[in-house]
Amino acid sequence: KVISSGHLFDAGEGWFIPKYVQERFPDLKSVADLPKYKDEFRDPESPDKGRFYGCPAGWSCDVISANLFNAYDLGDSYTYYQPGTGAAQKAALMSEYSRQNNIVFYYWYPTPLVGALDLVELELPDYDEEKYKCLSDVDCQDPQPTDFPVSPAFTALNADFAEEAPQLKALFDNNFIPLDSIYAALAELEESGDEPADIAIWYLNKYPEVWTEWVPEEVAERVQAAL
């Protein structure tokens, strides 16, 4: 038997534009606004339409974004661009961003890309479970707009372990990791090329105000002395 412990962070996903794009077009705030701005996101292969950057074919986010794309009838004003791989997706977005081009795209977080770029998430209607269930179905017949759900991340513990080691369970119960520190750790991992274990030590040194809240004071002091 497995039980959940703590609340590490809230993961999410959405449709984004760079902050510099919203500064150029301050009235572009929601997915529903996109048709009015199709000329600003021109697809070089279909110049009469804008380009929306979706997910690689076969990914669940591809099904959801494609259905959401259809829910807004965006096919009249945008092409739905599918990169071949996740790496190609990231490379295309980073390239466009580095040149300060206008882009609109799907992505998820926390990820190094979302942490590294200054982005604005476009507004969607409040999350509706039934509508989202249809968006998640490749055969969805009547896609309707809805926001993506928030996905709480937690630690899974063996129930016997949790009972036999209450002090360790208390540690995991107290775990909470602010998103900004996760983005910083992901960036350090990507830029340094270090192993995850090295980044864990880096995190302990960088964010004592976070992890010292997880453990008793005397434990925190021993860890800091060892660092």
User: Which CATH architecture of the largest domain is right?
Assistant: 3-Layer(aba) Sandwich
User: What kind of assembly state do the chains in view correspond to?
Assistant: single chain
Task: Indicate the CATH topology of the largest domain.
Answer: D-Maltodextrin-Binding Protein, domain 2
Return Rg in Å: 21 Å
The SSE order reads: EHEEHEHEHEHEHHHHHH
Number of DSSP strand runs: 7
Q: Count every helix, treating DSSP H or I runs of 4 or more residues as helices.
A: 11
> Regarding CATH, which class of the largest domain?
Alpha Beta
CATH H-tier superfamily of the largest domain = Glycine betaine-binding periplasmic protein, domain 2
Distance between the termini: 35 Å
Count of discrete structural domains:
2
Shape: globular
Largest sheet: 7 strands, mixed
The helix content, as a percent range, equals 40-55%
Please tell me the overall pLDDT. 96
Please, could you describe this protein's structure?
It is a single chain. The chain is α/β, with parallel strands linked by helices and 227 residues long. The chain folds into 2 domains: 2-7 and 156-226, no CATH class; 9-135, D-Maltodextrin-Binding Protein, domain 2 (3-Layer(aba) Sandwich), CATH 3.40.190.100. Helices cover 43% and strands 21% of the residues. The protein is built from 11 helices and 7 strands.
